[in-house]
Amino acid sequence: MLHESTRTASLLLLLGLVTGCGESATPKVSAGSRTPTSLHAPAAPALNATHRDLLDLAFDAVSAMPTNPHAKNRARGQSEVVDTCFEIGQLELALHYAERIDNWRKPLAEATYAAALLDQGRTEGVESILERALASAEQAEGWRKDRIRSQVAAGLTKMGDDSRASSVADGLSGSELGPYQRAMASHVPAEDMDTLLAGIDRQIATGDFELHRHALQSLIVWIGRFPDDAESRREMEDRIVDSWSRLPAQMRIEFALELADLALVRSDESRARYWVEQADGLLHGPSWVPEHRIPLVCSVAAVRARYGDAGRAEADLKLMERLYHEQRENIANIYRADALVPLAVAWHRLGDGDRAQQVLWFAVEESQENPNSRPRVDDLILVCCAMVESDLAPNAQLLNRMREIAASMGAPW
Fold it and tell me: Which contacts of 323-332 are long-range, i.e. CB under 8 A and separated by 24 or more positions?
């Protein structure tokens, strides 16, 4: 018999077994009655000066973009820097940057900040932050409003307030359920696994692409929570593989690499190799354009190196370098950094710092072919954030060149 509780009812709503009816009134945030069950993430170490310089460089460059007519692009670029701060655990710095965002992405960042505080076991002030973000969501429209509410619902779930969380999430579009669904998967107790699986099966059966994607993400979250439960892990892995043929190849590759990463975390090299081979098999087709194939091969190579197959990983990266140069003229200049930056990061992860610096220099110079500043700012943000997230520091020559480029931004945008 399924475990019946407020938490289970929230799970049923989340998984689409209960559907919301239109817009609901904005509920007031309040503390719940359940103690969070997930482990707290440790606070991040202090950010080194070079990485702070890179984040400032990227944020200041995009903030120089005029709001008219570039308000959306400006805020999107600013939020990418904010997201990098969240990725590396620099929560206060993320909030510092977010204060300068002028649109709906500011309350989204505030809600993300609140949820991240809870991940670190910090509860002071969280309720008021979530209240403010939820109130701001009412000024947004459509999917933007839903995205904020989903992040608020995730925070409420981490607080233990399932009832309020499900109320906030009521009526969300399937495309924006992700943060809330992942939070629920992180907190549903083990005895509710059957409910989780039944709901996920029905969610996948809808045929809705977004619901399918969120369902598989929930399974991966669960696998990560219970690394020693081999039986349920294999059951969930089977569900992922049995249904993922309906998803794009790139998404399947990304899921396979997440599963490989989880296998390595639990020191299961054999299973990591299995998932890497699953990902690699999807890359051997004629339909990949270079700017899509190169980053994925680099991600596969980085995982190979982690379980000791550095020789194959290095060979793959060299192959991708040749592919880039052979196909360079077929890659639009706005996409060249998208191919080169993951290549540089992969070289860094393989321990070849000099080669990583060379590829980054090339990526920075390639971006200068575009006469407009907006795509050049996008590439600068990509380079800066990738270096910070991968703990890669630029040499003095590269950093000076990036500063020169940032200073040169201006009309035409």
Answer: 323/290, 323/293, 323/294, 324/290, 324/294, 327/290, 330/289, 330/290, 331/289, 331/290, 331/291
Structure pTM? 0.90
| Alpha-carbon span 258 to 181, nearest angstrom | 17
Q: What pLDDT was estimated at residue 192?
A: 86
For residue 35, how many other CB atoms are within 10 A of its CB? 8
- pLDDT-derived band at 124 (thresholds 50, 70, 90) equals very high
Q: Measured between alpha carbons, how far is 393 from 102 in angstroms, rounded to an integer?
A: 30
**Average pLDDT along the chain:** 90
**Helix pair angle (193-205, 230-243), 10° resolution:** 10
* Distance separating alpha carbons of residues 390 and 13, to the nearest angstrom: 37
Write down the pLDDT at residue 316: 98
Average pLDDT over residues 192-216: 91
Distance in angstroms (rounded) separating the CA atoms of residues 169 and 375: 35
Q: Diameter of the chain by CA atoms?
A: 66
Q: CA angle at residue 218 from 300 to 190, to 5 degrees? A: 120
Q: Predicted confidence band at 195 (pLDDT cuts at 50, 70, 90)?
A: confident
Whether 35 has a pLDDT exceeding 80, the answer reads: no
Report d(CA 201, CA 280) in Å as an integer.
27
Q: What pLDDT, in 10s, does the model give residues 157-175?
A: 999 999 999 999 999 999 9
- Each residue's pLDDT tens digit, 222-234: 999 999 999 989 9
Measured from the Cβ of residue 311, the count of other Cβ atoms closer than 10 Å reads: 10
